[in-house]
Write a structure and sequence with these properties.
mainly alpha, two-stranded antiparallel sheet, globular
């Protein structure tokens, strides 16, 4: 849960792992290589890719090296990556990892890293099908036992070190997205081999951080391996025994220990509960917004460019910017991993013998309203919960959900490195929302400032989630945290008086704009709000009746008009919960709920029969429940209407 993409530990901007400074630079390289620049706003052309493929197979070292650099510079998104894969470039690049030229090895590793890191799940699947893992592991196994990095002129990484970092980084991206890659890493004993590269004094911070990042990924699924004790001792002694390691290394090391210990917080972890809390808190308390401001302070201005009279001064300006960006990205990576750990601690309950995790088996995502719910859903160990509250984790997570100030965001958007950094801030925000969902279920309302303050946070999340254009990932994580908060608040009757029709209207306006998962989150939020407004005791008076009417109308319209069977079922399930009490019947009549459900019933039953075998396993229960309850609900409400009209 909550996995983030691999952190890039290269010295250059992260949206360009091979270090090509800008799109214009990559265009120049392509021109120099004799390949026509394809920058027309479309996917890389087949002609361009075929030309690069021929150059990659050239007998000239310079041609091969140049083609690798050009390819890496031209890959901008997942469409470009998939286009390169479909042209078979992975099969051409793979052998170049073992080229006799060290420069070609490095540029090929960089190109592969760019393709898989920008390609997404589809590109990674294709790359593995094209057997990218074989040359990558072969390259690592070819490293001499006595190899040590050394600094190249200009305080830059030497070629062999840069190749190592790119290769391990690529393996990390593949392993994050593919269990096949993880299994292969274990079969090839890659983990055991990389454990020897954990000494910062010998291998440098860049190499060690890249290796630890990889280990934190592959140890999630250890398979039949025997490295657990060795790795545990190495991690504790090198990164956790003292305080000198960076927040990122300490956080990744804790993640490795939790993976090795099957996510259990007990004596076998090798760290006390207080030490775990200290590691997480020391990372989360850092100000990520200040780091963004520091980057903006180093963004080049027109005056800087005019004053930079020679190449050395330009390099100095670029170096300071790169250092600021790298520091910000490292901080963000540490905080994303800290939030991931905290999220998992607050949702793990698989081991019945462990008191330090809570169980959440009584409630599924399909549950709505108060029926079957108890306020203490997440029964986190009391001592651990108190320690989390004392560490102010709830407040820290809220802070991580905040993007930099508007003027800082605008400044970052004007620069290529800034745009890439903003994507990392958005990833941090998404992870904070997911973490918030679990913390809310684990904490008492009083632990989070009380019902009024928590409701204010919920309103703030609604504005944040639905104002402006948001990515689907952002919308999904934000609505998930909103759903968790409103469910928690549904046990506090005083919140009903704070509900306003405008809050409902804002949600209703965005239902049709969401993808299925986000839409379901919103429907479940509306269902909970409607149930809260309806209450259990008559009479249903204003403004509560208007809220119930508004919620009922949007749920009914969604149930009748949507083409997604799962979404239809969720909307119906919410309707049944909102209108389960008899005193809601006047609103039932106002919105013609029974009549419209009668019209929907035959079609819905037919759709269930046609699609039930193809439904995802986690969607089937709510669909079947909605089918079973639909006719019962119609029958009951029809009976109640006949009784009241006598």
């Amino acid at each position: 849960m909550g996995k983030s993409k691999a952190n890039r530990h290269n010295k250059e901007a992260r949206d360009n792992p091979i270090g090509l400074a800008a799109k214009a630079d990559s265009e120049d390289i392509v021109m120099d290589c004799g390949v026509m620049s394809p920058y027309t706003g479309t996917v890389l052309s087949t002609e361009t890719l075929k030309s690069l493929s021929r150059q990659l197979q050239s007998s000239s070292v310079e041609d091969r090296d140049c083609a690798c650099h050009a390819l890496a510079g031209l890959i901008r998104n997942n469409e470009d990556s998939c286009a390169a894969l479909h042209e078979g470039l992975i099969k051409v690049l793979g052998p170049l990892l073992l080229d006799t030229s060290a420069s070609v090895c490095h540029s090929a590793a960089s190109a592969l890293h760019t393709i898989v890191s920008k390609g997404g799940d589809q590109a990674i699947k294709l790359a593995i099908e094209h057997d990218i893992l074989t040359p990558l592991t072969a390259l690592l196994k070819r490293i001499p036992a006595q190899w040590k990095p050394h600094q190249a002129p200009g305080d830059k990484l030497d070629t062999s070190t840069a190749t190592f970092i790119e290769t391990v980084g690529t393996l990390n991206v593949l392993s994050e997205c593919s269990s096949l890659a993880v299994d292969r890493m274990h079969r090839e004993n890659v983990v055991s081999m990389l454990i020897s590269y954990l000494d910062v004094n010998e291998y440098g911070l860049d190499v060690v951080t890249t290796v630890v990042q990889f280990l934190s990924t592959v140890t999630e699924d250890q398979g039949d391996t025997d490295y657990t004790e060795v790795l545990r001792k190495e991690v504790i002694s090198k990164f956790l025994a003292g305080k000198e390691s960076s927040p990122l290394l300490r956080t990744l090391s804790l993640l490795i220990l939790l993976n090795l210990n099957h996510q259990q917080l007990n004596s076998e972890l090798g760290q006390s509960t207080q030490e775990v809390i200290e590691i997480l808190a020391s990372s989360l308390c850092l100000d990520q917004r200040k780091a963004a401001s520091h980057v903006v302070d180093h963004l080049p201005t027109t005056r800087d460019e005019e004053r930079a009279t020679d190449e050395m001064e330009e390099d100095s300006l670029s170096s300071r910017l790169n250092n600021a960006v790298e520091a910000a990205e490292e901080l963000i990576s540490a905080q994303i991993k800290s939030l991931e750990i905290l999220t998992n601690i607050c949702c793990s309950g698989d081991d019945a013998d462990s008191n330090e995790f809570y169980e959440d088996e009584s409630v599924g995502d399909e549950s709505l309203g108060n029926e079957g719910l108890e306020e203490g859903i997440a029964d986190l160990n009391p001592e651990l919960k108190k320690a989390f509250v004392d560490a102010q984790f709830f407040q820290l997570v809220i802070e991580k959900a905040k993007l930099p100030a508007t003027n800082i965001v605008e400044a970052l958007n004007q620069h290529r490195s800034g745009k890439a950094l903003l994507k990392r801030y958005e990833a941090l925000q998404c992870m904070a929302f997911l973490c918030l969902s679990n913390i809310v279920m684990a904490f008492e309302v009083e632990d989070m400032g009380g019902s009024k303050e928590l409701f204010d946070i919920w309103c703030g999340l609604a504005v944040l989630a639905f104002q402006g254009d948001k990515s689907e990932q952002m919308l999904e994580s934000a609505t998930a945290s909103m759903r968790a908060i409103i469910r928690k608040l549904s046990f506090h009757k005083d919140i009903v008086n704070l509900l306003k029709l405008e809050d409902i209207t804002l949600l209703c306006q965005r239902v049709d704009c969401c993808q299925p998962q986000s839409k379901v989150n919103v429907l479940q939020i509306l269902g909970t709000l409607g149930s809260m407004a309806a209450g259990v005791d008559p009479p249903l008076l204003e403004p509560r009746s208007s809220i119930v009417r508004g919620v009922g109308q949007i749920l009914l319209d969604t149930a009748c008009l949507t083409q997604d069977l799962w979404v239809t079922a969720e909307a119906m399930d919410a309707l049944f919960d909102v209108f389960k009490e008899d005193h809601t019947d006047p609103v039932v009549n106002d919105i013609q709920l029974v009549e419209r459900l009668k019209s929907l019933a035959p079609t819905f039953k037919h759709r269930v029969h046609a699609q039930r075998r193809s439904l995802p396993a986690d969607h089937l229960p709510v669909v079947m429940t909605a089918r079973d309850n639909l006719l019962r609900f119609i029958k009951y409400k029809t009976k109640q209407r006949s009784l009241t009209t006598r």
